[in-house]
Each structure stands twice: as C-alpha cells, then as structure tokens.
Design goal:
The chain contains 1 helix and 9 strands. With 156 residues, the protein is α+β, with helices and mostly antiparallel strands. The protein has 2 domains: 1-39; 40-155, Ctag/Cox11 (Pfam 04442) (Sandwich). It has a 5-stranded mixed beta sheet with strand order 3-1-9-5-7, with no helix packed on it. A 4-stranded antiparallel beta sheet has the order 2-4-8-6, with no helix packed on it. The chain starts with a helix and ends with a strand.
Length: 156
C-alpha cells in the first residue's frame, strides 16, 4: 500500500487541490454577486426650477434616467440668462424620499458654488454622482425604485 511519506504527499496534494478549488469557486461567486449588484437599477427623476427673481432658464435634456447602482454618472444641465443684465445664482437641491439622500453620492456639483452669467449668456453645468451600493443591504430602500431630485437656482 502506501508508506507514510507517500501518504503525507497525497494528503498535502489533496489539501492543495482543495484550496485551489475553493479559491476558484470563491472568485466565481464574488464576480456573480458583483455583477448582480451592478445590474440593480433605480429611476432617477430630475426636476429643475428657478427663483422668480432670477431671469434664467434651467433644464436638463433628460428628466428621467435609469441608473445602475454603483456606476458613475455625469449629467449636464443647460442654463441661460435671458435678462439684459449680469446675474448670479446658487443652486440647492433636495432628495425625496429623504431616506435615500445618504445613498446619492455627489462627487462634483455645480451647486457647491455661486454661478454668474452675463446677459444672454448660455452655459452648461454638470453633476457627477453614483448611487452607493450599500443601498442594497438596507431593507427599507429595496422596495423604492425611484429617487426624485429637485434642483432650484436661487438669486444671490
């Protein structure tokens, strides 16, 4: 049969092969789970408004987007000063339902600083964001498929 040296070599080889198989299966399961998480989507509804004291048009070309959770997005907004004088504004935003605010992660936003436009000037402003994948482990947001974001330019 087998002597002790051969038996030890067979055991070590078996353990080694078992570890390789477990490692490969772990990678496959992780990739499958990651792909499934990235396929989750939420509808992002955008609403833009302008303070009545500010003579600006403010809009985006798409008011609704299907966004994949965890994926980075950039949305452009068109802004135009239709008055005959220079004016400035600063945007604020709110998110509904409120409990989803912590999952909407803005990396860059025009709303962080005052914007100034010359008479009849047009410009594009943008936001860069993603929906935090932690939303998938929170039981409450799982049933919510829409995030409503309201941007309002205020006169400054």
């Amino acid at each position: 049969m087998f002597n002790k040296k051969e038996f030890s070599k067979i055991n070590i080889l078996g353990i080694f092969l078992l570890l390789i198989i477990i490692s490969i299966l772990s990678v496959i399961i992780f990739e499958k789970t990651s792909k499934d998480n990235n396929q989750e989507t939420i509808t992002l509804n955008l609403d833009t408004k302008v303070d009545e004291k500010l003579s600006w048009n403010f809009f985006t070309t798409s008011n609704s987007l299907e966004v994949k959770i965890g994926q980075l997005y950039k949305i452009d907004f068109n802004v135009e000063n239709y008055s005959s004088s220079k004016s400035s504004g600063k945007a604020i935003y709110s998110i509904k339902p409120e409990l989803l605010k912590k999952y909407f992660v803005e990396i860059d936003c025009f709303c962080y600083k005052k914007q100034t436009l010359l008479p009849s000037e047009k410009s594009k402003y943008s936001i860069t964001f993603y929906i935090d994948p932690k939303i998938l482990s929170d039981l409450k947001p799982k049933d919510i498929k829409d995030i409503n974001i309201y941007y309002t330019f205020l006169n400054t």
